[in-house]
Amino acid sequence: MSDTVSDGDKLQRRRFLKWASGIGAGVSALVVGSPALAAFFSPALRKLTPKGWIKVAEDISTIDIGVPIKVDFVEAVNDAWVESRALRTVFLYTDDGKTFTAYSGVCTHLGCSYEFDAAKSRYHCPCHHGLFDMKTGAVIGGPPPRPLDTLPVKVENGEVHIMYQTYLSGVPQKVET
Ligand code: FES
Questions:
Q1: Spatial CB neighbours of 55, under 8 Å, sequence gap ≥ 6
Q2: Which of 103, 107, 123 to mutate to test the pocket of ligand 1 (most atoms within 8 A of CB)?
Q3: Contact, 150 vs 101, CB < 8 A?
Q4: What pTM was computed for the model?
Q5: Considering only CA atoms, which residue is closest to atom 1 of ligand 1?
Q6: pLDDT in tens, 104-142
Q7: How close is the Cα of 172 to the center of ligand 1, in Å?
Q8: Distance from first CA to last CA of the chain, Å, rounded?
Q9: Upper half-sphere CA count for residue 152 (Cβ side, 13 Å)
Q10: Which residues fall within 8 angstroms of residue 63, CB to CB, at 6 or more apart?
């Protein structure tokens, strides 16, 4: 056996080291550039999404009185590990065009999406036929264990803003998740 390293071996070793340092630099760049990856490698960098007001109506004067309106919007969700977008739904209801109630569009039974049944003036969840009062959100039929979940709502400069929040389904109390 020989201790002599051939020129070919040296060249191969140099190529390998160059390749390995390139991979290391790439991983570092990803960690710095991606909050999710940075959080994975350094829990101290974890960042939770701040809750904030979301505009769901531009002009209160155009909102029907005494009839719920459905508003769909996209919310950016960042739990530090995954950054994604979620489609949310709320129902806005007003009796006077000035003060509003906002209901989360998630059924309190097992989390299905429900709809407003205009013919019967009530909300109907198709999954297990849960029924809710149009105005108060109270359960008027089916298995839901509590009324619809109300969300914080405010009117500012003629716009309606809500604070979106999710709650545990299937339990009688309103518990934030
Ligand atoms: S999920 Fe709505 S009634 Fe069951």
A1: 159, 160, 161
A2: 107
A3: yes
A4: 0.71
A5: 110
A6: 999 999 999 999 999 999 999 999 999 999 999 999 999
A7: 13
A8: 68
A9: 8
A10: 57, 69, 92, 94, 97, 100, 160
Structure tokens at 92: 């806005």
β 130-133/139-141 pair status:
antiparallel
Q: How far are the Cα atoms of 23, 38, 76, 101 from residue 31, in angstroms, in the given order?
A: 12, 5, 21, 43
Task: Say which amino acid occupies 104.
Answer: S
Q: Which atom of ligand 1 is nearest to the CA of 125?
A: 2
Which atom, in ligand 1's list, is nearest to the CA of 144? 3
27 φ, ψ to 5°? -65, -45
Least confident of 4-13, 23-32, 67-76, 153-162: 23-32
